[in-house]
Amino acid sequence: MAEKQPENKDLKNEGKQEKGKDQKDNKKGAKGKKKEEVDELSPEDLKLKTDLELLVLRVQDSSAEIQLSAIDALRKEIRSATSSMTSVPKPLKFLRPHYATLVTFYDTLLQSSTPKTHLSDILSILALTMGKEGERESLKYRLSGTKEPIGEWGHEYVRNLAGEVGQEFDARGEANVDDLVKIVDEIVPFCMQHNAEHEAVDLLLEVEQLEKIIQYTDENNYSRVCLYLVNCSSYVAEPTDSLILRICATIYKRVNQFPDAMRMAIKLNDAELIKEIFFGSQNIPEGQMIQKQLAFLLARQKIFHVIKPDDVEDETLKNILSNAQLSENFLALARDLDIVEAKTPEDIYKSHLDQRAGTGSSAAVDSARANLASTFVNAFINQGFGQDKLMTEEGNKWLYKNKDYGMMSASASLGMILQWDVDSGLSQIDKFLYPNEEWVKAGALLGVGIITCGVQSPVDPALAVLAEYIDHKNNNVRIGA
Fold first, then answer.
1. Contact criterion met (CB below 8 Å) for 191 and 200
2. Left, alpha or beta for 195 (phi > 0: left; psi -120 to 50: alpha)?
């Protein structure tokens, strides 16, 4: 054991020597980091870096000609790299250490001199990656530059500039913003031409110039513009939301999309706009078919007071606007879908699948609550179909399985089953208006209102029936009427 101790000391000494070597290597690595970065550059990149550094020196030359020549050379190098940016272009990367130098030299140049305005363009694009956050340097130098086409520097530059314009607009408040509006008028067409409609809309919303989007919208981009605008309207305050919907209605009318324009008018609840869209659709090809679609939209929302059936001459339009054929159309759709057959509450309950049900008795126990639930379920699952297996088949049998409000609900449920079928529906429910049982009568009166709900008729049979019971001595009958 005593002989092995010197070996352990040697190992410790070797470890110390290795640590010392590592520390020296780290120091060498830190010192040689810049050298390694230079060594990593390819010959082409190294040449580009050297050329750019030389151009930076020439920009600071005392001769205006040399300055302009160097600035033009820088412009060509940067523009070729920023036309399609997927990462930071190499010219911008290599010019990063010289940005402060160029800014300092820029401040020494004479105001409005040719070299200064040309150098403003260079600094505006360099500020895209080198400017201080919140300083809006890219916009600052753009405003003092040569005002060359904004799209020459690529989409990323335009996007950055749009963001800075919005910030500057908020910062100025009520001050003069004419110079910003000029830039907006350049950015918006560029965005619209390059499938960036949402960016154009966002910018116009920020600078409160949203009406300008109309002139840049056509048949190729209206759907994207309006879809984005309609979604934006849900997140802005009044009156901006109404303004957005009106702009969408205007765009839709320009491209002859009258049904979509009508949706905007209905959202705005603007009677004059609804009339303008409805009657304006006559002047386009297939105007008659479009008007039918608009009539269905209005009838579905029960907007009878704006365009009345008497305002149109076409009998088909009159029937659509008054919902006179609503029941017929509903049943035709049900036949096409093969869902005409009446359903029972058991089809919904599926109690035979309930494992908790006892096996001792197969007979279902009637109760007031269960019957009331079945009445409502039966009414909803057979709504508008004109037939069911409780009220239209069993009739009085099911009615008298209930009491008080249950009877009222049962007789009223017949109105939901026969909904929209004014002609035959009223004749079927009429028999429930004459029993001595006031609960049944009250429910039948309520059913009359449900049958005729949303259906316009020049005769107005519901009013003729219900008017007799408005002053009835029984409170429940009065409420039903």
1. yes
2. left
Contact assessment for residue 209 and residue 178, using Cβ atoms and an 8 Å cutoff: no
Q: Is the pLDDT of residue 22 over 60?
A: no
- On whether the CB atoms of residues 161 and 182 are closer than 8 A, the answer is no
- Element (DSSP H or E) covering residue 174: none
Q: What is the pLDDT of residues 321-380, one digit of tens each?
A: 888 888 888 888 888 888 888 888 888 888 777 655 544 444 444 587 888 888 888 889
| The residue to which tokens 């004479």 are assigned | 110
Distance, C-alpha 283 to centroid of its chain: 31
Give the confidence band of 31 by pLDDT, cuts at 50, 70, 90. very low
Structural tokens at position 146: 């040569």
Cα torsion 456, 459, 463, 465 to 10°: value is: -120
Q: Is the backbone of residue 341 left (phi > 0), alpha (psi -120 to 50) or beta?
A: beta
pTM of the model: 0.74
Q: Is the pLDDT of residue 26 over 60?
A: no
Quick one: which of 351, 398, 354 has its CA closest to 378?
Answer: 398
Residue 432 near residue 440, CB atoms below 8 Å: yes
* pLDDT attached to residue 363: 41
